[in-house]
């Protein structure tokens, strides 16, 4: 299948990019915004008016059934419930208007040109998408790193005359009165963040999405990760919407659904320091229109370029082939809502992971990502050794070139301008991120005032750098797990190493995107890569590190080390603190305080452990492994099963 | 066996019958009365294709299609539109021919493995038998694509070693007893129109295989006008049964598309369905009493009560048993007075969705005419291409006007519109009333009445389709039909998905030309419908076209099942669809059927290995 990870990542074929801002800089934005826009829809259907769409949803068999059910259960009049359904739909539905789209096209052209050097899109991907839209209903799944994402997506599709998507957006946008309505008119529809037991809400929502999808009125777009990733790591996929969009295929209502993963990579993320602060516990500012205007100062800065890669459309039919027995829907009318069977749940879950991995694979890495990783590792090593801070510029360049070659071997989609000299590449990367690093007397170091120890400021810089490093984690995570496994295994027996690998992988399965149940494949993939790059020799029985492999292995283990240390410190916290009465809410502040103390005392090197994301993941892992138990909102300590290697 | 569609339309019926009456058997086996049914069927029928030897489609020297012979309404006519449709639909070319091997060479036929003791005892009973190659080969196949394709290539696999022709129930009893005594494998053979590989000899069978041809058991034994039943020998062929009953003013009304050739026993053994089931019912509704000879003895009920509460109906073990339990020898069937009036009709719909909605409404109101079928756009065009040359300028002018009215004035898209064909039957007044009711419903779904002619031609398509397949096979085109039944709410989905699956699979399997993938809703029921698919493609450039064909058909069946369709509505399971039986009827269901087989036929004398 086109979709399984390639055996040799070096051979991965990727499309070329085209800068869409180039034309914007030379021709009229107004004319561009007013140009003739005639996208082709699925099998040539004509777009559907919002009011028609709404009445289709309200008259659907599914909703009809649920309304009657709710009415029977609650004793309310059916008309009353129908009224409520109608109100929910009113609150939810998009009202795409071409005039608003044109307004955005004009405005965004102006904004993008100031903010970004280029917006690069793979045109072949657009052509594939165009084709896919005509053949089958399409779901767009962009990665989510910035608020910008969905406006950017619509902007690109408008530019290429592709059908505009309807986009699932969180209700919090609705807080911004004017902007919320603008977004609605540009294709967003709004869903509540949580509606757990609300049958009626779920039913209106799923029927609304399915009606648009089945009839091919517009591509449906949503974020598989559910929310913006504050760490630049892909988040564990959310399954609700994916379940909904796969349903019409599984029930035979459409022949197939095409899912298109889209990878949006920002050279510099607009929300960079905002995210870091958020992870450190400064609460996220509520979305408000005035807040948006305050953010105007970002307009004066340089955010480099954006790469948007439209991946290979994935056919849900081919994903499901041999995995799902569609006959399971034969015996109950299809409009009666039912809980998905275990078979379907695990199918959707696996598909979600594969799709997130497909997003990851086509994320473009800029040289700065390599620099950030190297500088972070250096920062921590120096702090430990008490050496002069920073790294000599030429040393950094040499190491970056080494890492460039390694990451290419591991299949990274690295955009390193080969016609420019390495030192120029390095200095251009550094200069774009001068908020995070500075060059001083030929040495490069994190942008922390020398001598002045501003703890919080340091943490922001470290977390920001870490988020750039995280962009390349997906390339290295499997080899890095193997490297660490070798490190902690008591011998180099293959089975032993595998056991450690499996333990680590299990431990970190909320931290990184690791497909459930794929331990053996992941182990083999990691072995394959490390053998191929001459780091390891793997025999039937043993895993041996080669002479020249130590450097790579050291790099890989130190890449994972902050996470290992972080999980360890969370364990220690749980062991040492009185956790009998610890509520979930108190956990983060308490563990943060504990970590700050460790950092100040020098018992912990990694300021990035302060990331609440890591702390939550660690807790989830311990819960999954049975070390911690949740008792009605309390976090309870189960038994001290902290493995020896963590100490 | 209601199969690859043959003469279904009553209008062509008279022609068929006239033709048949003139057929004189050339059977020359000593001691056998001369009937209308020859022992050596290949003398009037094709040995490697469908139907009568004198009737076939061909492209004449001018490149025009014509239908030869004198048997059918279409016989001797030029069909001007067929060539363009054929070339356009399949990308076929009249220059690229794939003619069949002309003659059956006896050397290609494996020698007969005879059970001498059995042969001797059969001889002593005086029941006619044969082990000529032609007789054996003729009874070794049905009409699946792979069977006919192999015959055209002159490839013969395992064939029966011997053919016997019992002429009555007692003959069958004797043969079955002898077969049990000598451990010989018996395979009942009726009309030979199976499309489920049911007649294929199991290659692993080591015993002598004897084909039990029921064609000589073809008498109506009595007609009971008080109860409106007729007692008939099971070897009678559909068209003879109707003709003979018509002579007394009656009919059964059971008209499967294959009724020219398929037999009463075959209908019972496969749970056949007739085109006019809305009035007369399917075979299970028509049968009052069945007599079957099994290795354990004769099974039958003791009376002819119209309904009984006496445990599970034993008829339902017999119907659909596909020759695995015994031979059906005699059947008592309901009969009806012949209808005084028949009228065809047709309705054009702007699209298939509207058409299905209309059929559903007709079924809901339980006012379906004798037959109502809805063809999709592709099949509508197919039917159109079969229009014979019009005789006058006036008719062609009228046709043009009709076309203009529908596409231009009413705004129907010629690439979306579809047509329902109708057949009304009964007394004149009621027919006209019924007709109005149906047309009124159709109008609510945007349907426009489109005349009797279109309706009649629609039914013609179903009886010439098998002849057309032979024409296609002369020019690199192979195809087949298959069917399913499905709940109403799934009809549109299954039609769309199965057709799309066929197109997708053809592409994936390297078929160089887009296939013909078309369907019709061919029967309506209270809770669902029967859907019939045609599928054909041009196989130029493929090294193993039959294998590709089989893979696509397999995928299409998987798709049907995944969309809530049944394994079969009336073609049966045979050996072609056996692999899905367990999923279809559950483990316990399989066990039930197996235990019946084990009791009735412990030594697997009826060893065609169908169904289970």
Automatic annotation (TrEMBL), chain A:
The terms under GO molecular function for this entry are: glycerol-3-phosphate O-acyltransferase activity; glycerone-phosphate O-acyltransferase activity
Q: Provide the Phospholipid/glycerol acyltransferase domain boundaries.
A: 138-267
Q: What is its main location?
A: membrane
Cellular compartment(s): Membrane
Q: In which pathway does it act?
A: Phospholipid metabolism
Q: Which SUPFAM superfamilies match?
A: Glycerol-3-phosphate (1)-acyltransferase
Keyword terms of this UniProt record:
Acyltransferase, Membrane, Transferase
Q: Which biological process annotations from GO are given for this protein? A: ether lipid biosynthetic process; fatty acid metabolic process; phospholipid biosynthetic process; triglyceride biosynthetic process
A cellular component term, taken from the record's GO annotations? peroxisomal membrane
Q: Which Pfam families match?
A: Acyltransferase (PF01553), GPAT_C (PF19277)
Recorded hits in SMART domains, A to Z, give: PlsC
UniProt lists the family membership as follows: Belongs to the GPAT/DAPAT family.
- State what protein this is by name: Glyceronephosphate O-acyltransferase
Name of the gene encoding the protein in the UniProt record: gnpat
UniProtKB/TrEMBL annotation, chain B:
**What pathway is it annotated to?**
Glycerolipid metabolism; ether lipid biosynthesis; Lipid metabolism
Gene Ontology cellular-component annotations: peroxisomal membrane
- SUPFAM superfamilies in alphabetical order: FAD-binding/transporter-associated domain-like (SSF56176), FAD-linked oxidases, C-terminal domain (SSF55103)
Xref: Pfam families: FAD-oxidase_C, FAD_binding_4
- Where located? Peroxisome membrane
Listed GO biological process terms: ether lipid biosynthetic process
Keywords attached to this Swiss-Prot or TrEMBL record, sorted alphabetically, are:
Acetylation, FAD, Flavoprotein, Lipid biosynthesis, Lipid metabolism, Membrane, Peroxisome, Phosphoprotein, Transferase, Transit peptide
Sequence positions that bind substrate: 469
Its domain of life reads: Eukaryota
Q: Where is the active site?
A: 532
Oligomeric and partner information: Homodimer.
Q: Which PANTHER family match?
A: ALKYLDIHYDROXYACETONEPHOSPHATE SYNTHASE, PEROXISOMAL (PTHR46568:SF1)
Record-stated family: Belongs to the FAD-binding oxidoreductase/transferase type 4 family.
Which protein, by its recorded name, is this? Answer: Alkylglycerone-phosphate synthase
Taxon lineage: Eukaryota, Metazoa, Chordata, Craniata, Vertebrata
User: Gene for this protein?
Assistant: agps
């Amino acid at each position: 299948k086109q979709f399984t990870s390639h055996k040799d990542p070096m051979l991965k074929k990727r499309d070329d990019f085209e800068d869409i801002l180039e034309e914007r800089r030379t021709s009229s934005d107004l004319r561009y915004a007013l140009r003739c826009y005639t996208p082709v829809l699925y099998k040539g259907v004509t777009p559907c008016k919002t009011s028609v769409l709404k009445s289709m949803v309200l008259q659907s068999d599914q909703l009809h059934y649920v309304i009657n059910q709710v009415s029977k259960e609650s004793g309310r009049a059916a008309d009353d419930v129908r009224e409520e359904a109608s109100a929910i739909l009113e609150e939810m539905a998009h009202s795409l208007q071409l005039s608003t789209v044109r307004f955005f096209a004009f405005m965004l052209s102006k904004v993008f040109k100031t903010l970004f050097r280029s917006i690069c899109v793979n045109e072949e991907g657009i052509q594939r998408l165009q084709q896919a839209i005509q053949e089958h209903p399409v779901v767009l799944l962009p990665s989510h790193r910035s608020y910008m994402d969905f406006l950017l997506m619509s902007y690109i599709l408008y530019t290429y005359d592709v059908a505009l998507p309807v986009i699932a957006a969180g209700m919090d946008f609705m807080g911004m009165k004017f902007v919320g309505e603008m977004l609605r008119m540009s294709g967003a529809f709004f869903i509540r963040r949580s509606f757990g037991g609300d049958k009626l809400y779920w039913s209106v929502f799923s029927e609304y999405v399915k009606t648009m999808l089945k009839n091919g009125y517009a591509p449906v777009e949503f974020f598989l990760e559910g929310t913006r990733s504050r760490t630049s790591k892909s988040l564990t996929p959310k399954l609700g919407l994916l379940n909904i969009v796969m349903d019409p295929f599984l029930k035979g209502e459409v022949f197939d659904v095409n899912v298109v993963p889209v990878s949006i990579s920002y050279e510099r993320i607009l929300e960079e320091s905002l995210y870091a602060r958020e992870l450190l516990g400064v609460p996220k500012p509520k979305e408000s229109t005035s807040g948006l205007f305050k953010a105007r100062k970002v307009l004066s800065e340089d955010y480099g370029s954006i790469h948007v890669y439209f991946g290979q459309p994935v056919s849900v039919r081919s994903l499901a082939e041999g995995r799902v027995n569609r006959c399971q829907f034969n015996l109950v009318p299809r409009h009666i809502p039912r809980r998905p069977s275990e078979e379907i749940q695990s199918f959707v879950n696996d598909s979600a992971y594969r799709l997130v991995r497909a997003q990851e694979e086509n994320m473009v890495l800029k040289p700065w990502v390599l620099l950030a990783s190297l500088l972070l590792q250096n920062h921590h090593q120096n702090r430990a050794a008490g050496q002069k801070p920073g790294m000599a510029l030429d040393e950094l360049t040499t190491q970056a070139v080494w890492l460039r070659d390694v990451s290419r071997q591991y299949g990274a989609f690295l955009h390193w301008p080969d016609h420019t000299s390495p030192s120029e590449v390095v200095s251009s990367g550094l200069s774009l991120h001068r908020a995070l690093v500075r060059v001083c007397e030929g040495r490069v170091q994190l942008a922390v005032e020398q001598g002045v120890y501003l703890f919080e400021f340091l943490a922001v810089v470290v977390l920001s750098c870490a988020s750039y490093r995280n962009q390349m984690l997906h390339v290295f995570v499997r080899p890095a797990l193997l490297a660490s496994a070798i490190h902690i295994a008591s011998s180099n027996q293959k089975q032993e190493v595998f056991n450690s690998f499996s333990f680590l992988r299990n431990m970190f399965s909320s931290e990184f995107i690791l497909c459930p149940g794929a331990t053996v494949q992941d182990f083999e993939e990691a072995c394959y890569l490390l053998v191929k790059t001459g780091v390891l020799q793997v025999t039937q029985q043993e895993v041996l590190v080669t002479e020249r492999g130590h450097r790579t292995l050291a790099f890989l283990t130190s890449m994972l080390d902050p996470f290992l240390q972080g999980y360890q410190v969370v364990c220690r916290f749980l062991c040492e603190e009185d956790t009998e009465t610890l509520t979930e809410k108190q956990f983060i502040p308490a563990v943060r305080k504990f970590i700050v103390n460790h950092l100040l005392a020098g018992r912990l090197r990694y300021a990035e452990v302060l990331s609440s994301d890591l702390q939550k993941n660690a807790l989830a892992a311990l819960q999954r492994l049975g070390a911690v138990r949740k008792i009605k909102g309390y976090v309870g300590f189960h038994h001290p099963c902290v493995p020896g290697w963590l100490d | 066996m209601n199969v690859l569609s043959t003469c279904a339309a009553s209008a062509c019926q008279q022609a068929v019958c006239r033709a048949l009456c003139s057929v004189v058997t050339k059977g020359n086996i000593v001691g056998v009365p001369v009937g209308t049914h020859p022992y050596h069927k290949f003398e009037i029928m094709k040995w490697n294709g469908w139907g009568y030897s004198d009737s076939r489609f061909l492209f004449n020297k001018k490149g025009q299609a014509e239908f030869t012979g004198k048997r059918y309404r279409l016989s001797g006519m030029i069909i001007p539109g067929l060539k363009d449709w054929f070339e356009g639909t399949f990308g076929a070319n009249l220059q690229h021919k794939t003619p069949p091997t002309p003659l059956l060479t006896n050397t290609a036929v494996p020698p007969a493995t005879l059970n001498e003791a059995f042969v001797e005892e059969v001889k002593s009973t005086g029941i006619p038998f044969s082990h000529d190659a032609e007789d054996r080969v003729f009874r070794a196949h049905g009409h699946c694509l792979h069977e006919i394709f192999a015959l055209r290539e002159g490839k013969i696999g395992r064939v029966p070693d011997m053919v016997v022709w019992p002429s009555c129930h007692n003959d069958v009893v004797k043969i079955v007893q002898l077969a049990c005594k000598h451990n010989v494998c018996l395979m009942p053979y009726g009309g030979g129109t199976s499309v489920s590989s049911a007649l294929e000899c199991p290659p692993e069978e080591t015993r002598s295989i004897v084909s039990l041809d029921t064609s000589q058991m073809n008498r109506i034994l009595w007609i009971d006008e008080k109860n409106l039943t007729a007692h008939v020998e099971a070897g009678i062929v559909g068209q003879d049964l109707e003709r003979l009953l018509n002579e007394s003013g009656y009919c059964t009304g059971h008209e499967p598309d294959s009724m020219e050739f398929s037999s009463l026993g075959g209908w019972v053994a496969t749970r056949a369905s007739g085109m006019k089931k809305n009035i007369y019912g399917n075979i299970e509704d028509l049968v009052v009493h069945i007599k079957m000879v099994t290795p354990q003895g004769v099974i039958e009920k003791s009376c002819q009560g119209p309904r009984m509460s006496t445990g599970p109906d034993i008829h339902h073990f017999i119907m659909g048993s596909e020759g695995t339990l015994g031979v059906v020898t005699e059947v008592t069937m309901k009969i009806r007075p012949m209808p005084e009036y028949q009228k065809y009709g047709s309705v054009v719909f702007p699209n298939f969705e509207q058409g299905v909605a209309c059929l559903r409404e007709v079924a809901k109101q339980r006012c379906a005419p004798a037959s109502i079928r809805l063809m999709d756009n592709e099949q509508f065009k197919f039917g159109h291409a079969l229009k014979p040359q019009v005789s006058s300028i006036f008719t062609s002018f009228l046709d043009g006007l009709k076309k203009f009215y529908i596409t231009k004035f009413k705004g129907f898209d010629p690439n979306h519109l579809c047509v329902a064909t109708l057949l009304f039957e009964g007394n004149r007044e009621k027919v006209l009333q019924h007709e109005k009711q149906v047309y009124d419903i159709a109008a609510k779904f945007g349907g426009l009445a489109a005349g009797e002619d279109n309706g009649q031609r629609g039914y013609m398509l179903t009886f010439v389709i098998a002849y057309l397949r032979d024409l296609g096979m002369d020019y690199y085109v192979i195809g087949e039909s298959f069917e399913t039944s499905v709940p109403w709410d799934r009809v549109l989905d299954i039609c769309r998905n199965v057709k799309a699956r066929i197109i997708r699979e053809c592409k994936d399997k390297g078929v160089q030309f887009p296939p013909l993938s078309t369907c019709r809703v061919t029967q309506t029921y209270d809770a669902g419908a029967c859907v019939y698919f045609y599928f054909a493609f041009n196989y130029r450039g493929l090294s193993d076209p039959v294998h590709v064909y089989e893979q696509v058909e397999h995928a299409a069946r998987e798709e049907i099942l995944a969309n809530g369709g049944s394994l079969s509505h009336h073609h049966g399971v045979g050996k072609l669809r056996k692999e899905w039986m367990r999923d279809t009827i559950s483990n316990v269901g399989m066990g039930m059927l197996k235990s019946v087989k084990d009791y009735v036929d412990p030594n697997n004398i009826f060893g065609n290995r169908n169904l289970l």
